[in-house]
Amino acid sequence: MAHDHFQEYGSDVPQRILVVNRGSLLDEGVVRLISSRSDLDVSTIDFENEEVLVNDIVSRHPEVVVMGQGGSVKLEKLYKMLTSVPTLEKLRMIIFHSNDNSVDIFSQEELNSIRGDDFLQLVHGT
């Protein structure tokens, strides 16, 4: 991915990543994969509902939110709520769909291009 505002590899400030935990093995694997990187500040929260999640995102102000798609998550409602908060204009959300091995990327910023599907590149935004 290429975008002027995305943080580059090698920055002195760790990028803040928030992983939304729904108790799945996928969630645990994602946390293990990205926690091994010293340039990422990874924290986790448990999913309760969309309102609580948006409040947690606003208060923690991560650059990236990562979560797996579950039946209880209403993505349209979540996206609408996120876009209504001006302070989240640079937020990226990466959503894994384990049922079909796809990934959705939510961003209010326009992406210039997407090259490949390397997860760490998506997290770093490079």
Reconstruct the topology from this structure.
Elements lengths: L14 E7 L3 H11 L4 E7 L3 H11 L3 E5 L6 H9 L8 E6 L4 E6 L11 H6 L2
Parallel strand pairs: 1-2, 1-3, 3-4
Antiparallel strand pairs: 4-5
Largest sheet: 5 strands, mixed
Terminal Cα separation, in Å?
5 Å
Taking all Cα atoms into account, the compactness measure Rg is 14 Å
Q: How much beta, percentage-wise?
A: 15-25%
* CATH secondary-structure class: Alpha Beta
Task: Tell me the CATH architecture.
Answer: 3-Layer(aba) Sandwich
Large-scale geometry: globular
SS summary, helix count? 4
The low-pLDDT segments are: 1-10, 112-116
CATH H level, superfamily name: Response regulator
Which strand order do you get reading across the main beta sheet? 2-1-3-4-5
Q: How would you state the average pLDDT, rounded? A: 78
Bin the helical content.
25-40%
Query: What is the total tally of β strands?
Result: 5
Structural domain count: 1
Structural class: alpha/beta
CATH fold descriptor = Rossmann fold
Order of helices and strands: EHEHEHEEH
What's the multimeric state?
single chain
Question: If you had to describe this structure to a student in words, what would you say it looks like?
Answer:
- The protein has 126 residues and is α/β, with parallel strands linked by helices.
- The chain has one domain: 3-Layer(aba) Sandwich (Rossmann fold), CATH 3.40.50.2300.
- The protein has helices at 25-35, 50-60, 75-83, 119-124, and strands at 15-21, 40-46, 64-68, 92-97, 102-107.
- A five-stranded mixed β-sheet has the order 2-1-3-4-5, sandwiched between helices.
- It starts with 14 loop residues before the first strand and ends with a helix.
- Residues 1-10 and 112-116 have low confidence and may be disordered.
